[in-house]
Amino acid sequence: MKPHLEDHLRHLPHDELPAYVYDLSGLRRHAQAIRDALPERVELFYAAKANPDPRLLEVLRDVVDGFEVASGGELRHTREVLPGARLAFGGPGKAAAELAQALEPGVERLHVESEHELRMLCALAAGRSVEVLLRVNLPIGLGDVPLAMGGRPSPFGIDPTCLDACLRLLAAHPGIQLRGVHAHLASGLDATEQLRVIEHLLTWAAQWARARGIPLDEVNVGGGMGVDYADPHRLFDWRAFGTGLLRILDDHPGLTVRIEPGRSVSAYCGWYVTQVLDVKHSQGEAFAVLAGGTHHLRTPAAKNHDQPFEILATDVWPWAWERPAVAGEPVTLVGQLCTPKDVLARRAPVGRLRAGDRVAFAMAGAYAWNISHHDFLMHPAPGFHYLDAASPDSARTACETLQPAVSPQPSRGGSVVQHGG
Ligand SMILES: *Cc1c(COP(=O)(O)O)cnc(C)c1O
Asked: Which of 30, 49, 114, 135 maximizes ligand 1 atoms within 8 Å of its Cβ, making it the mutation to test the pocket?
């Protein structure tokens, strides 16, 4: 962890733990590196569902080309936070009211998920126009992919056998303009696998459009760029991905290709920091019970992995008796919930971990707070803190109190720290 970040996590007031800390300057640098690795012709949209925190969205606005929203709620939120941003509206199961929202000005692309959805859109359009992509579920052999959304029976996207019916509808409704196709087939692929899927998809799309005599302006190839929770330092190879895309694009002159990653953009900027409440042994195994848990950071439960963490040892111990501790043996890190599923990391090797030490969980910037079951057991919500990206070359330090960004619950407060230099 970067020294200024560690310094911040160590000095957070004890009563503000657990807390989320977002390294916004780190986010900006990371997103910029992704943008720089991509060919100019490739548009980078951020999938807001990974983390729609307004401050993250504001940082990303300066770097990405637009945002993918996956519900009427995300559409409203992103529009409010980033008026004028380019928006693509996707997501399965759009209700009529959500389609009506998509017909209001400001949605640049709508990703159509089914023939019925397209029929509703046509019925609701009433003279208004919207530009759409048809989301297809192509039968691509993806192998053993962590989170497959397509290439097999799936509720996402349109089966290729239903596309002609969609084209007939579109021909009868000139206000609904077809710009191309969309496919988000899997999550967790490395650069080589992603490129293989994309090449296949673009070849299919070009042949399909040619055979049907329709223009193909753009293909959105989705997100799903892999991150490695077992090794936070092993990043998706954006350079190899960009180079590979450049080669693939040679075969498709004039085509706009868009990607919409979420996790691989924002996962690394978030930290969930908390404190060890207790350490105990049970039938020969060591457990550390932490303040908070998977109701704040559901990611390890949802993905059934060990969340990577760093220990910030603290010497403060207010009690007269010996600190409960574990040293030189694996320890399972759990939260405060009354369920055996509340596990953040299993049998993790640690040098030493004591009650009162702080633990900072890494890679908590995507699918973390916003996918968690906050209300279970009614513990207080974490504080939210932002190491600010606004002015990298100013020496200003500012603190302000914030409501938690995406929480209906009372906050423990929060802060913005701007790091100069
Ligand atoms: C979730 C999702 C994304 C983002 O996926 P990541 O794995 O976070 O990169 C992009 N497009 C669609 C359609 C999605 O459902």
From this structure: 49
Rounded to an integer, what distance in angstroms lies between the CA atom of residue 299 and that of residue 405? Answer: 18
The model's pLDDT over 279-320, given as tens digits with 9 standing for 90+, comes to 999 999 999 999 999 999 999 999 999 999 999 999 999 999
| Residue 145 alpha carbon to ligand 1 centre in Å | 14
Residues within 6 Å of ligand 1 by CB: 47, 49-50, 68, 70, 90, 184, 187, 222-225, 260-264
Burial class of 141 by CB neighbour count within 10 A (0 to 12, 13 to 18, 19+): exposed
Phi, psi of 353 (to 5 degrees): -140, 125
d(CA 410, CA 9): 21
State the alpha helices, DSSP H only, in 82-224. 96-103, 115-125, 163-172, 191-212
C-alpha 47 to ligand 1 mean position (Å): 6
Domains and CATH numbers, the chain: 86-261 (3.20.20.10), 268-419 (2.40.37.10)
What's the length of the chain? 421
**Taking Cα atoms as reference points, which of 293, 312, 327, 308 lies closest to residue 358?**
312
Q: For residue 414, what are its two tokens?
A: 């929060």
Cα–Cα distance for residue pair 136/163, rounded to 1 Å: 8
pLDDT for 237-283, tens place per residue?
999 999 999 999 999 999 999 999 999 999 999 999 999 999 999 99
Q: What value, to the nearest 5°, has the Cα angle with vertex 52 and ends 50 and 55?
A: 125
Output the pTM of the full model: 0.91
* Helix or strand (DSSP H, E) at 186: strand 186-187
Phi-psi map region of 51: left, alpha, beta (phi>0 left; psi -120 to 50 alpha): beta
CA dist 307 and 228 (Å) reads: 10
Q: Do 200 and 153 contact (CB within 8 A), yes or no?
A: no
Can you tell me which atom of ligand 1 is nearest the CA of 188?
Answer: 7
Q: Is 41 helix (H, G, I), strand (E, B) or coil?
A: coil
